[in-house]
């Protein structure tokens, strides 16, 4: 890891063991091998997986640690990554929190097959990719925490995710500076519809990027 990468981890008190980094390296290798035929991430991102995707995923570590310390979420709880795609942020977070069970939800079955195969190769045993389309079927509010990083408009996604969230559960949404800075009456309406309230936000800046990014924190009431 380079100095800038390590500086980000140190700044946000993100500490992974060598074994955890090894698991992420095996996953990254599997992702690169499959990307040419599945287009899991943009080709221009292939050399920036660690900074653009892994670090961006791990930015939620201090948020989740705070929730654990506050007793808002306990080891063994079920966590869902909505629209997991190439496995971000769900796979790095599963590595960071081995005492929790992660479901990586995605609407494309072949991505789920890849994620389960890659997790097996990397020895990430607390994660399962599941072929699931949010909003279809009878909702089961079984998750204590849900994450959403790049599914589309938050106001459209939030109500669908909230249906799967337990009362008192938390929903973490990755957002850009432009998104957070804009006037979003539709988001406020969606939050009310979903039975959520905003419980805070976490700001961070990835290496070599000019603008801050945010993780918005919502709780189901």
Structural notes for this entry:
A 7-stranded mixed sheet has the order 3-2-1-4-5-7-6, with helices on both faces. The mean pLDDT is 94. α2 runs antiparallel to α6. It contains 9 helices and 7 strands. The chain is of the alpha/beta class. Helix content is 43%, strand content 23%. The chain has a single domain, classed as Vaccinia Virus protein VP39 (Rossmann fold). β6 and β7 form a beta hairpin.
Average pLDDT rating: 94
Query: Within the CATH hierarchy, at the fold level, what is the topology?
Result: Rossmann fold
Characterize the overall form. Answer: globular
Helical/strand content category? alpha/beta
* Main sheet characteristics: 7 strands, mixed
DSSP helix fraction: 40-55%
Poorly predicted segments? none
CATH homologous superfamily annotation: Vaccinia Virus protein VP39
In the CATH hierarchy, what is the architecture at level 2? Answer: 3-Layer(aba) Sandwich
The helix/strand order is HHHHEHEHEEHEHHEE
For the CA atoms, what is the radius of gyration? Answer: 16 Å
- For the record, the CATH class is Alpha Beta
Assembly category: single chain
Number of strands: 7
Tally of discrete structural domains: 1
Enumerate how many helices there are, as a single number.
9
Strand content: 15-25%
């Amino acid at each position: 890891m380079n100095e800038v990468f390590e500086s980000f981890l140190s700044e946000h008190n993100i500490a992974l063991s060598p074994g955890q980094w090894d698991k992420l390296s095996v996953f990254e290798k599997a992702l690169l091998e499959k990307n040419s035929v599945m287009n899991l991430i943009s080709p221009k991102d292939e050399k920036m997986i660690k900074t653009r995707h892994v670090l961006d995923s791990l930015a939620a570590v201090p948020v989740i640690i705070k929730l654990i310390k506050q007793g808002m979420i306990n080891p063994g709880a079920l966590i869902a990554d909505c629209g997991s795609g190439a496995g971000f942020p769900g796979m790095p977070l599963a590595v960071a929190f081995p005492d929790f069970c992660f479901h990586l939800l995605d609407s494309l079955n072949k991505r789920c097959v890849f994620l389960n195969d890659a997790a097996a190769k990397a020895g990430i045993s607390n994660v399962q990719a599941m072929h699931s389309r949010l909003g279809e079927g009878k909702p089961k509010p079984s998750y204590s925490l849900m994450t959403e990083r790049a599914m589309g408009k938050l106001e459209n996604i939030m109500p669908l995710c909230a249906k799967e969230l337990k009362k008192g559960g938390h929903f973490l949404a990755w957002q850009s500076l432009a998104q957070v800075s804009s006037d979003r009456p539709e988001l406020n309406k969606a939050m009310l519809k979903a039975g959520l309230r905003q419980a805070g936000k976490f700001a961070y800046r990835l290496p070599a990027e000019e603008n801050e990014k945010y993780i918005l924190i919502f709780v189901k009431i």
